[in-house]
Design brief:
Length: about 475
């Protein structure tokens, strides 16, 4: 048998690229034909390479198929692109700036610090419309309104002051539809930093302009100690007295390591229905008997019993769930003043930032996996609805990043910005090290100690000056050493 020739990753990547272009029906190959094939509706859909000439960075781009009417590129994340000069400046700063511990006073952050009202940090609203408008006129009106919103926002704030936020109009359109068609809004946040993901302008718009109720779901409660959970509930209640607050976790009473281990071993996720009771009680209080939620309560108890009986409920024996994939016509025909609890059905809209666990909560409420879950922000691309019971409907919305003044490094550490698209990790690492005892956790040796042990024999790593560059280099060398051992 002849010996195989070496096949590099670069060759494999090029082979897959040619295969995708052939599948799309492109006659040519290379970047020119690829760029020509993804032009749609007069808008050029470029990739995330450094050669991109626009000022918007497009994340999670998917190959576009001409045979399918659905274009996955339409819902990819759009963030402002940083220039090469800014990236190089941060790299240089990471090599020179010494890490200094941040005081407890500097760690205190309020909602007003992240979303100051005087900065005009709202969110784009859907312009007024009616059924007499044509589809083309409605789309043009939305585009004009969105463009005016961006121009006003950027004129009020200097360049670089705003954090990463969503620039994709298609994603905002889905968000508008979810707000219009939902009776109760489930605003889902990560309990480890809820003020980062709770825009006050959104709350006031839902409760004031739309006259609807909001249930704040503090997700991932198992990752925080109970005193911290109580403190966050007290803080949010003091800021928003009429807000319904619910703590939720998909893995109650289990340490984080045990949860990860079970995820690797079990074929399907270990779903919990403990938080569903609290959400049900909040919805019962809001609806005040106008919707029959007894079927939902029976389902929660039935699923809890089946979960305790290990292995008795197989996947094929689970209840069927009606899934509605929303098309463009369905998204555009939602009424701007929709009747609440129409036909006796309660519609719950699940909204929130990327990576807060919206899909996991929907899976837990349904009792089985109906939504794909990923650690990558922006995994959910388009909204769809699920009938939990004949009188309760869930509506899943893609994660949206609202404009704010939060530090971009904190956004990255919180999982809002995809790590795979990060151009330099040093500033984020430095931000984290200044707020944690990184030396005792990572157990690193300073590079100067490794280079000249005799010169610094009387000093420890704690006494030497550290930079973010040192931490990254030492961690990488430490990982390589462990791999060789």
């Amino acid at each position: 048998m002849p010996r195989k020739k070496p096949f590099s990753n670069k060759q494999k990547k090029k082979q897959l690229q040619v295969k995708r272009e052939r599948k799309r029906g492109d006659t040519g190959s290379g970047p020119s034909s690829r760029n020509a094939s993804v032009e749609r509706g007069g808008e050029r859909q470029s990739d995330t390479s450094d050669s991109e000439t626009t000022d918007i960075r497009r994340i999670n781009q998917q190959p576009f198929s001409r045979e399918s009417r659905f274009d996955p590129n339409r819902f990819r994340l759009h963030f402002e692109k940083e220039s090469k000069e800014e990236v190089e400046k941060r790299k240089k700063l990471a090599m020179e700036k010494l890490l200094q511990p941040v005081s407890d006073k500097e760690l205190e952050v309020s909602i007003d610090d992240i979303y100051p009202s005087e900065k005009g940090l709202g969110f784009p609203r859907r312009p007024p419309w009616n059924y007499e408008m044509t589809r083309e006129n409605l789309l043009r009106k939305e585009e004009k309104s969105f463009r005016e919103y961006l121009d006003d926002l950027l004129s009020r704030n200097p360049p670089g002051s705003l954090s990463h936020f969503e620039h994709n109009l298609e994603t905002w359109r889905q968000f508008w539809r979810v707000l219009e068609m939902s009776d109760v809004i489930l605003l889902i946040v990560d309990i480890r930093h809820p003020v980062l993901q709770f825009p006050p302008g959104l709350y006031h718009h839902i409760t004031g302009d739309l006259q609807k109720r909001v249930v704040l779901v503090l997700n991932k409660a198992d990752l925080c100690p109970p005193p911290q959970v109580i403190a966050w509930k007290h803080y949010m209640t003091s800021q928003f007295p009429h807000l319904h607050i619910v703590c939720f976790t998909s893995h109650p009473g289990q340490p984080y390591s045990t949860v990860l281990q079970k995820k690797r071993v079990r074929r399907k996720a270990d779903l919990s229905h403990a938080g569903g009771i609290d959400i049900l009680k909040a919805c019962q209080e809001i609806t005040a008997g106008r919707v029959d939620l007894s079927s939902w309560e029976q389902k929660i108890h039935r699923d809890a019993v089946a979960e305790r009986l290990e292995g008795e409920r197989a996947d094929e024996g689970a209840e069927s769930v009606l899934v509605e994939h929303q098309c463009d016509s369905a998204m555009e025909m939602s009424s701007p003043s929709q009747e609440l609890y129409k036909d006796g059905v309660l519609t719950l809209g699940c909204i929130g930032f990327p990576n807060v666990g919206k899909s996991s909560i929907i899976n837990s409420l349904v009792g089985r996996k109906v939504v794909s879950v990923s650690r990558t922000p922006g995994h959910t691309k388009y909204f769809q609805t699920y009938y939990l019971t004949p009188t309760v409907k869930l509506c899943d919305c893609p994660g949206l990043v609202f404009p704010s003044l939060v530090n971009k490094q904190l956004q990255i550490l919180a999982g809002i910005y995809p790590v795979s698209q990060l151009q330099e990790p040093y500033s984020s690492v430095g931000y984290l090290c200044e707020r944690t005892p990184f030396l005792s956790v990572l157990k690193l040796k300073h590079p100067s100690l490794l280079e000249n042990e005799a010169k610094h024999s009387n000093k420890g790593s704690e006494e030497l000056d550290w930079t973010a560059w040192h931490v990254c280099e030492c961690k990488m060398n430490h990982s390589d050493t462990k791999r060789l051992m």
